[in-house]
Every structure is written in structure tokens, then in C-alpha cells.
Amino acid sequence: MKGIILAGGAGTRLYPMTLVMAKQLQPIYDKPMIYYPLSFLMAGGIRDILIITTPNDLKHFQSLLGDGAHLGIQLSYKTQPSPDGLPDAFILGEEFIGDDDICLILGDNLFHGDNQFFIQALKDHNEKKDQIKARVFAYNVADPRAYGVIEFDKKNHSVKSIEEKPEIPKSQYVLPGIYIFDSSVSTRSKKLLPSKRRETEIVDLILTYKEENSLGVSTINPGVVWLDTGTPKSLLHASSYIETIEERQGLKVACIEEVAFRMGFINLVQLKQIIEKIPKSLYREYLEKLSMTLE
User: Fold this and answer.
1) Which InterPro entries match (predicted)?
2) pLDDT tens, 195-252?
């Protein structure tokens, strides 16, 4: 399984902050936004990741993350000149995907909590890949009208329908910004027609799998927090949430260096080498304390 983080777009909802830096580089409390989806993929065991961003922002992501070798992962980059819809990520990433399965996560999505739902979904996808070629996730929200809404077939817990931003939702379950597809996703994406928004739609792509009865669904348990951080208010709420969690627990959320170590991507010596290059800061102090407890 490979991963794609879609970190493009104009970020118009965050204007004028996005005149200074890309949306996915904005801070969520004490870390750049992209640390959260990146650490999520890493914690799922995904080590080969493509970051798709705009031509103007490419150098900033590369300066921040490099090629990922220091984290024991492999990062590559692709530019998206214009925001032409989520399926465009699979067209741009066609060579990167090759014959492998792919997990797409949006760069402004934050998941926090027990990630076993994701690990189990990856396991199920691998074990049932002859029958299930794509998998979506279902998350219960109070007001689903702003999202893609999933209607379940109650008999076998399969997807009965998916409707984009309906006025009268058929359920409280919506599509969060994470998807799993097989390698045919690039070919399928090329065949999609733009919607009224002049973009190709992820729902239309998902429905191509549903029509073939090869679409699976995994429900995210209520203990997992999902935040979309694409607006000033949601950005503030996410920062407040992370600050509260870190202050109460004394643990950092989405610390990519810690995730790399705990996943076995790097060893203690390599972790210490990373720490030596970090300037004096609370972030460095946290990693120093962590390394001392591991000795």
C-alpha cells in the first residue's frame, strides 16, 4: 500500500492566510497541518508517500520534509497546477501508483484516537482484494448536509447509495477525507466527466466501484475524532483540541519523529541524530525526554 497526501488547492476559505503559506502548512497548535495526515499514514505502516501540492508551494514542503529518509520513509512530490477535483490526484500520481494499491488522505484532515479502524481496514483490503477493490470510511456527524452522505444496506452493511451534500440526508454517516483504491483508480479517474463545479468528483469515482459490487466500507468508531481544518474557525478549534490533549496527557499528537521510531522505521541512534538537528524548542525538549525514557 502506498499513500497520497493531497495538499494542493487555493485555500480560499483561509484567505488571506494562504497568501503567506499553503493551507496544509498552516499551524495546528504546534505543528504544520501536514504533520497530521502524514503521521496518520505512517502509523498505518505506509512508508512510500506522494505529496501533491501547488507549483508555488512545492519548495516549502520539500524544505520541511525532504525525501523522508531521516524518518525511514520515502517521500516524493508532484505539482497540481489547478484544483481539478480529488480524482485528479490519481491521474497526477499514476506513475507513482503503478500496480500498487493506494490510500488517499486529504492534507487538511485530522484524525485523532485509536487508529485500529485504519489498520483493520488496510488488513481487510489486503485479504479481500480479489472482491473488494475500493474502500471508503463512514463517520457519524451531527449535520451531514455539508458532506458526501452514505446510505447503508442494513442487511449486509454495504453501501446502498452515496449522495453529495443532500438537503435531506438519508443517514448521519458521511465520507471523511480518506479513501483506499486499487491500481485501476488512475484509469477510472481519466474517464470521469467534470461536474457543475467544473471538477471531477470523488463520489463519481467511488460509484464506479459500487456499480461493480467491489466497494467496501469501514465505520469509524465514535472514539476517533475527525476534524476538517479548512476554515479559520475549524483551524482554531483543531488547535484548541490538540493543545488540550497534549497539555492533559503530556504526549504530542502527530509527532512524526516519534511515530517513525515507534513504527520501527528508525532506531534510537537515528532518533537522537534527528534531535541534534532540531533547534532549542519545546518540540526538541519533548523528543529529548522521549529518547531518555527509551534508553
Assistant:
1) G1P_thy_trans_s, NTP_transferase_dom, Nucleotide-diphossugar_trans
2) 888 899 999 999 999 999 999 999 999 899 999 898 999 999 999 999 999 999 999 9
Q: Residues 223, 140: contact at Cβ < 8 Å?
A: no
52 contacts 4 by C-beta, under 8 angstroms: yes
CATH number at residue 81: 3.90.550.10
For residue 229, the 8-state DSSP code is -
- For residue 289, give its domain range: 268-294
Q: Are 97 and 180 in contact (CB under 8 A)?
A: no
Q: How far apart, in whole angstroms, are the C-alpha atoms of residue 125 and residue 128?
A: 5
CA-to-CA separations, 258 to 66, 67, 100, 248, 288, in angstroms, rounded: 17, 17, 27, 18, 11
Do 151 and 256 lie in one domain? The reply is yes
Q: How far apart are CA 263 and CA 271, in angstroms?
A: 12
Of all residues in the chain, the percent with pLDDT exceeding 90 is 86
pLDDT at 155 > cutoff 80: no
Q: Number of structural domains, the chain?
A: 2
pLDDT at 10: 80
Three-class SS state of 44: coil
